[in-house]
Every structure is written in C-alpha cells, then in structure tokens.
Amino acid sequence: MWNWQVAAQSAWRRCSSSRRRNCPPLAAQLGCDLQSEGCITTDSSKQTTIPGVFACGDCARMAGNISLAVGEGALAGVASHRSLSGLLQG
After folding, report:
1. Which of 33, 68, 75, 71 shows the shortest CA–CA distance to 51?
2. Do the domain assignments include residue 60?
3. Which residues pair with 40 in a beta bridge?
C-alpha cells in the first residue's frame, strides 16, 4: 500500500530545501502537469491535474512568499479534506 504521508513529507522536504522551482520529482512521477517555469499546475482549490493530488507554496507558484505559501497550504488542506469527503467538485 502506498504511504501518502511519507510521500507528502518527502515532497515537502524536497521543495523546502531547494531553491529550484521545478519542485519534487514525485509530481512528475505522478503525472502532474508542470508549467514552463517548473511549477506544478493547480486549479483554484490547489488541486493538480491529477485528481486527489494537491500542491501549494513554492512548488505551485513563483512568488517565493511565506505568507502566500501559508495561505495556499490552508486552501490545499481544506480542499484535500473536501476531496476525501467526496465534497470537492472537480
């Protein structure tokens, strides 16, 4: 069985420890679309092009701003909860 918590922690460490914008290789391995700058493509709920996979902060935008990353993290958290509950409209 795939352990999403380990994968998420690994992806987070990769993003937070790297100045490169083309963050975790996990995104490409899962098949997420990437923007030309290397950021992960997301919708307004921070869901990637792969249903149930979310990205935020420096991995999903070029801003490099802590406040924006925290806000996007909150959006992604709520959206992932809604997705697991079957409430997120795709």
Report:
1. 33
2. yes
3. 34
Quote the number of domains for the chain.
Answer: 1
pTM for the structure as a whole: 0.70
Tens-place pLDDT, residues 23-42: 678 888 899 999 888 889 99
Q: Which H/E stretch holds residue 27?
A: helix 25-30
Residue 8 exposure: Cα atoms within 13 Å on the Cβ side: 12
Please report the sign of the dihedral spanned by the C-alpha atoms of residue 41, residue 45, residue 50, residue 53.
positive
Residue 52: how many CB atoms within 10 A of its CB? 13
In a domain, 14, yes or no: no
Nearest Cα neighbor of 23 from 33, 31, 11, 5 is: 11
User: What is the domain extent for residue 34?
Assistant: 21-82
Buried-exposed string 4-22: b where 16+ CB fall within 10 A, e elsewhere: eeeeeeebeebbeeeeebe
Q: Is residue 46 part of a domain?
A: yes
